Amino acid sequence: MANMWMVRAEAGTLYDEFRERGVAAVGWWQLAPYARPGVTRRELIELHGKTEPTLKSGSVVAGASQVWRFVNEIAIGDRVMTYSPSNRTYLIGTVKGDARHVPEWQDIGMALCRDVHWETVEIQRDVLSTATRNSLGSTLTVFKVPTSATKELLRDPAAIPSRPAQAEAVEAAESEETAASVELQAREKIKDMVAALDHHEMEQLVAGILRAMGYKTQVSPVGADRGKDIIASPDGFGFENPRIVVEVKHHSGAMGSQQLRSFIGGRHKDDRGLYVSTGGFTKDALYEAERSQVPVTLWTLDSLVRTLVDNYDKTDAETKRMVPLKRLYWPA
Q1: What is the pTM of this model?
Q2: 329 to 176, 189, 244: CA distances (angstroms)
Q3: Which of 54, 61, 80, 265 has a CA between 20 and 30 Å from the CA of residue 4?
């Protein structure tokens, strides 16, 4: 079985760019011109230390090692994957070329690229076993995917998804554990918990977050909601501005422009719209929101969880019951 690698540049925000341009890429633009096949890890570490003299030695080694791995360890024919934290989907492809410097893409974090043939089918994070989800939780930009996770992702019948595999994913020389990496992994686990809620619970959670932000809410009864699941306002009746109309779509795939256009079309000129789609949004939907005459905010599962965490201390008991969390203290 060919090796599989995770490449998740810019925390996954380049997912669509990878697919549309047919590449996997990393940043480190200072190293990219020198990162050719055959370059040694030591050469890249020394160069990284000179170009970034304020970085800690561990960060210098970790960054240079990931570039070295992207250039030298990933082979043509290996499988590669990337992750979208907004849509909670994985994209899998096959490496088709050596690493090359692309200076015109360095401003978007893609200075060093490899050609990839991406498959059309995306894999939802929610369908994977807990062991596989955990093994893919490393915050490194480039790491080798454990064998057990690779088998499950490729639907190999011999897969053993429960096998502990996280140790394979991160090498000690590259894994300088920080509070930021712990926070990112914790947030993915919280998203797993929230994604498991049913549609009614998701509506109640969104209403609970809005209450924690200072609004009073009305949740529509089960059944036809005419494009509004929740009304949030300062007075609780929708008489005082801002009157926020909320539509919640849970586990229904990425929302397209037509659904968003329908939602916007039903709003009054003084309304403010909040559209929650745990399956994410298409690019056309994002464009539709940008040009809307009625102000509209879009929440993916990622942005919903970020807002929940930011306001968790102010949420009521019912909201905490649905998503029980505890605070973790880390040395400053």
Answers
A1: 0.65
A2: 18, 17, 35
A3: 61
- In the prediction, which pLDDT does 175 show? 43
> Distance between CA atoms of 298 and 310, rounded to whole angstroms?
17
Distance (Å, rounded) from C-alpha 186 to C-alpha 57? 26
- Using the structure block, give the residue that is written with the tokens 């549609």: 199
For domain 195-322, say whether CATH 3.40.1350.10 is its number: yes
Contact 148, 132 (CB under 8 A): yes
pLDDT for res 5: 92
Q: C-alpha distances in angstroms, 46 versus 31, 37, 52, 131, 176?
A: 10, 17, 10, 37, 18
Across the strands, what pairs with 118?
A: 93
What CATH number belongs to 4-176? 3.10.590
Length of the chain: 332
List the chain residues with pLDDT less than 70. 1, 156-181, 222-227, 330-332
Domain spans of the chain?
A: 4-176, 195-322
d(CA 12, CA 281): 15
Say if residue 242 is preceded by a cis peptide, omega within 30 of 0: yes
Please choose, from the candidates 322, 276, 318, 326, the residue with its C-alpha nearest in 3D space to the C-alpha of residue 301.
Answer: 276
Given this model, what pLDDT does residue 223 score?
Answer: 62
In this structure, which amino acid lies at residue 264? I
- Return the closest-CA partner of residue 144 out of 152, 131, 135: 135
Average pLDDT of the chain?
A: 84
